[in-house]
Amino acid sequence: MYLNAYPKVTFVQLRSFEAVARLGGITRAAAALHLTQPTVSTQLKELRSAVGVDLLVPAGRGVRITDAGRDLLATIEAMFESWREFESGILDRQQMIRGSLKIAGVTTTEYFLAQWLKPFVDAFPGIDVDLVIENRDKVVSRLENAQDDLAVMMTPPLHIPLSATPVMENPLCLVGPLAHPWAARRAIPLKKLADEPLLMREPGSGTRQAALEFLAEHELTPNIRMTLGSNEAIKHAVAAGLGLAVVSRHAIAPDPAADNLAILKVAGFPISRHWHVVHRADRRLPRAAAVFLQYLDQAVSISAT
Ligand code: PGA
Question: How distant, in Å, are the alpha carbons of 132, 145, 190, 206 from that of 102?
Answer without folding.
Answer: 8, 13, 41, 21
